[in-house]
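DATA SHEET
Item: assembly model
Revision: 1
Owner: S.N.
Input lines:
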Amino acid sequence: MVEYQKILDKIYSDLKKTKDHGEVAAYIPELKNVDPDKFGMYLNRLHGDNFYVGDWNESFSIQSISKVFTLGKAMSLIGNDVWKRVDVEPSGNPFNYLALLEQEEGIPRNPLINSGAIVMADILVSELDDPKKDFLQFVRNIANDESIIYNEKVAISEAKTGFTNYAIANLLKSFDNLHNDVETVMDFYFHQCSLEMTCEQLSNSFYLFANRGKCQRNCEYLTLNQIKRINAILLTCGFYDEAGEFAFEVGLPGKSGVGGGIVALLPNEFTLTCWSPGLNPKGNSYLGMKALEAFTTATNLSIF
Amino acid sequence: MVEYQKILDKIYSDLKKTKDHGEVAAYIPELKNVDPDKFGMYLNRLHGDNFYVGDWNESFSIQSISKVFTLGKAMSLIGNDVWKRVDVEPSGNPFNYLALLEQEEGIPRNPLINSGAIVMADILVSELDDPKKDFLQFVRNIANDESIIYNEKVAISEAKTGFTNYAIANLLKSFDNLHNDVETVMDFYFHQCSLEMTCEQLSNSFYLFANRGKCQRNCEYLTLNQIKRINAILLTCGFYDEAGEFAFEVGLPGKSGVGGGIVALLPNEFTLTCWSPGLNPKGNSYLGMKALEAFTTATNLSIF
Amino acid sequence: MVEYQKILDKIYSDLKKTKDHGEVAAYIPELKNVDPDKFGMYLNRLHGDNFYVGDWNESFSIQSISKVFTLGKAMSLIGNDVWKRVDVEPSGNPFNYLALLEQEEGIPRNPLINSGAIVMADILVSELDDPKKDFLQFVRNIANDESIIYNEKVAISEAKTGFTNYAIANLLKSFDNLHNDVETVMDFYFHQCSLEMTCEQLSNSFYLFANRGKCQRNCEYLTLNQIKRINAILLTCGFYDEAGEFAFEVGLPGKSGVGGGIVALLPNEFTLTCWSPGLNPKGNSYLGMKALEAFTTATNLSIF
Amino acid sequence: MVEYQKILDKIYSDLKKTKDHGEVAAYIPELKNVDPDKFGMYLNRLHGDNFYVGDWNESFSIQSISKVFTLGKAMSLIGNDVWKRVDVEPSGNPFNYLALLEQEEGIPRNPLINSGAIVMADILVSELDDPKKDFLQFVRNIANDESIIYNEKVAISEAKTGFTNYAIANLLKSFDNLHNDVETVMDFYFHQCSLEMTCEQLSNSFYLFANRGKCQRNCEYLTLNQIKRINAILLTCGFYDEAGEFAFEVGLPGKSGVGGGIVALLPNEFTLTCWSPGLNPKGNSYLGMKALEAFTTATNLSIF
């Protein structure tokens, strides 16, 4: 029998000793001021007990991890029509690369890079009655936790400095792949990125993707086919320019955010969230990546 | 002695016979509704009589030709500091290519592509007391004609559909190469593009660039060194992706606009404006390019 | 219990009815002359009986599928030093894109695109005593079949027309990432691509990758860690520009070749080879892709 | 009256004082071993005396300057058919960029980048009876000097290390824009680059391009129209990624080589060669560029 608590404890103590924690994202004050020594993990097992360590119960800015939620919600609303507006190929480029979007005439490479996520936001703005409120409720439902909130300060800060994202949205609009006005979509987008969640809440919210489309209290669902496709996209596109590296070293579908969070999952087995605010040069959590490698090495669990 | 009137008349009658006039720009109604059969030329000679033919006295939207005026004004205001924010190399790419701007980290290739012209607009917004008014007065001065005006309808139409330009401005801002806010700069930019001038007015306004920096009534000036550099940029960058072709076929510095105007000049000799609204696939006036080729072939005048 | 034979039979009869079989590769006569109506499948299950249908016992040119064998052999010879010379990221571009190789200064994106495979070939030329002979023996060992041979005619044809590959090899050499001379490496490379195998032989040879690194007769092996990494690369990079699509639609690690073969595998469960010579526009077997989609849909087997 | 000797002497003494002479090309021993302190200039005036200074009478490797001769010869042989195989647009990229060639499907941007020059070499190999011998005679004719020779050692050295050029030639071949075999064309190309000439010989050989197509002894000629076009290409494409900068700072058509030579010309007025082996980061002679800027500033001579 695998001793999960021992494994988490060892990862925690090993990583706590390392000197290099990466660089905390500094482009907005709210992210910059996070304590770089924070580190937490939460393992949610589908067929057994859960395990956790460190700062697993502290909220952080989930940022790009929210792109998985908007993708899931968009698929539940309009099904395969999603794929008329976004592709499913890895981008092979840093996360803000406009060149590719221009070259491919406004069809983002996949829904997990910024351009693709902005298209998903546009879909939700079109489809939901009260987009920000309804989307927040969706996240609360799948996490089974009504306390999850947007951080308005973060959303406002991002809007003030998010010129690259505004450039992307305008470029999408020039290719007629943004149907609402730029400001409305960006307001939604900056809010989704500002969601604050704990490691536990993230692991709970991803339960749906590990559990064949059914969330913990059966309140929301996606089809098995949709879930498989989301997991495939997570594996091939979840880590920007480092997606191949993550598949190679960790071997699990997952998604990272610039707030230092990473969620990964093994279908039918578990979801696992790590949080450590320092980032590697590719923009993924430095210790989070190491923690996930250590976990899959110790447990020999991977999809391959 | 060269019989200029005969040459212009022959070009006019030859081109009138051609079936293919290119495609009139259709992205805003104000441009789309222009009569595609319009054709005019105006030759302003520095040391002799002027000659003209066809619709030389009809106003049209000068669009990108205005970039030469903002470049000249920016150079007169801040001199070589202009070159800290924009390069002088041909772009080798279509006029709205964001890829290059991203790759070169926010330094536009030259001041005659959209990104470079938006940086020039930003400089004028920073340097002029009343940017739109003062710039209009500059153009009136060098053309020696107080009747030149912005077309507000055109400016508003462009603002409504100019998503690519907004994308460029935001991308420049993300690289810290736009110092004023996006809306203010774009408002100035869309106004400069909306300037309406006749062939005669354009030829008169470019007199400055052919006449070593002194305009017709000596009201404005640039140094000889600045003029030579502007002419060099016109030759290497004045026709988007077709600059080499124009240098090759025509052999004169010049600038085209999507309204169908082209101005070219031979230093110390003449300025020549053609106008025909239909465009070739590269976005330059279809008959205008042919008219200029015919003129330099007939007269054997070129800088080479 | 899953009725595999029924599933294969149904896929076979369904696909036989389709009009569009894609385009057979035509760049060398040996590939062009293959009967476009050929279709075969062979399922090798690790814990149960094997199943097959159609032309499963006919040899075809495995082409790029051989890149998996050279990768495996290179890893077994020099271990992680492989990753000093090639990356593990999806290429996000067609299979012969030199641009990316130039931009990334001679480090191929991954070992399954042509440039990466040429680096693997270079490693084998350096490390093996008699490269072509020893590599052929390796393939025979893992397939447990001494009858597998190179097709010399195919190898010679490819050498005569393989200018893009010569360009790649020379570009690698210019970046000092090819240690042997171009001709020797290309001779090896064109031979590996010329290997002829049946669906059964391919399924048998990939047993190793599904079976945690042990081949059917235990004659060759890779570590579990190496196998997982190879499978990860297969999933993220095995289908050129369509890798994401394959992960998305099929959800299995796999590799295709321009001869119309595709091998896929579910770790610890099975290997499955399809062969149909007609290709889709991305260069993967048209019916082979459809057959694999149908198989995973019918069986609900995938890594996600 | 302009005091040319005084101007050349002053440029010479000023530049001799500068510490930074750039970096001598080091990729082959024959170029690396050149004395970095060499500096020479030779001014050939069409309507007056010639002037010179420093090491004007010493031979050096003309390298890419030879591309102007092959272009001229190709145009004299097949006229406008040249433009079916090469474009006339600036490349906007470093001189060995394969990406652009791939993107534009084997049509080089212009005849002065390596890919375009290799196509010119291919034309001469097709059209000339004894390509290397006949081309050498052409150069001797236009320079009016039978002593000009290839440096076989340089040609052999370049062939041994010219992997990027071999990559380009193979890529051209893959797009069917190289009609002879790669080795034959590259042998010609490496020989043309190995030509050794003095400043005087280069200025004499470019007399043709300044003198409307007639060389000094009327032994060879091009049409006025062809000459104008060559000059236009020199201006827009003669200095790799620095063509715009050269047009901007110097304002003359010209061509540089990695051996440290630069030739420039003012139509109907003069040809001027500078030689200094140290290069700037863009691959053009560091002091040569400065010398030409100083000359045109002092004399106020430019095409603009």
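QC remark: Residues 81-193 of chain C form a domain with the Probable Glutaminase Ybgj; Chain: A, domain 2 fold (CATH 1.10.1500.10).
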